Amino acid sequence: MASILADFWNLVFPRTCLGCRERILLEGEQNLCTYCRSRLPQTDHHLFPSANALYDKLAAFVPLRAGMAYLLFTKSGRAQQLLHSIKYRNLPELAEELGSWHGGLLAEVAYQQRLDALVPVPLHEKRLRQRGYNQSHHIALGLGRVLGLPVWQGVVERHLPSSTQTRKSRLQRWQNVEEIFRVVAPETVQGCRLALVDDIITTGATTAACGMALLEAGCAELDCLALATAQ
């Protein structure tokens, strides 16, 4: 009965693509139509995990084994539109779907063999209450489902909110975030190969600070995976 009602509802009020907001989603399409998916600004980071602009940006702050983003973020571009929908239109399922697509690219190069677990960058408790979910956690769930890796939520907590990074030098950005993360159970991460998962990386300072907290707690090797990175 529930399936019949759902089919009837979709017939009367068909779901449209979150990308173009015009095409009606067909069977097998969850949030984006096939056309919009084909036009996503994908990177080739999965082929060059330690030889790309994102890796260089993060490696300026923290020692990494790899840094990879799925999409390139540009102002008013498709990646910005999708991230806005994830964060402000209550669409954690879109985060999971995009995470799974990124996972598909990484699986092509057997990336999962390099890792023990995925760790989402945490939100501050106040922001988590406001939004109701951590988008990075849902991206990690999508990645983990495809790669067959566990997602360790709650391993790191964000005990201080960070101020805006706009118009700050690289040193000022690092000083702004270097003490806002704390590893809750250091024994959990000791000797592990972990990938930190974030939604978007702009300056890289916040993500790197979270990664440094993991390394200082005993993480053996650290990667960073992001849904998008600014050019």
Question: Beta-strand percentage?
Answer: 15-25%
The number of distinct helices, counting runs of at least 4 residues, comes to 10
**Structural class based on helices, strands and sheet pairing:** alpha/beta
**Total domain count:** 2
Order of helices and strands: HHHEHHEHHEHEHEHE
Helicity level: 40-55%
Give the distance, in angstroms, between the N- and C-terminal Cα atoms: 48 Å
**Could you name the CATH class of the largest domain?**
Alpha Beta
* Arrangement of strands in the largest sheet: 1-6-5-2
| Mean pLDDT score | 87
Which CATH architecture of the largest domain is right? 3-Layer(aba) Sandwich
DSSP strand count: 6
CATH fold descriptor of the largest domain:
Rossmann fold
Rounded to an integer in angstroms, the radius of gyration calculated over CA atoms is 18 Å
| Largest β-sheet summary | 4 strands, parallel
- Indicate the low-confidence ranges by residue numbers: 4-9
Shape: globular
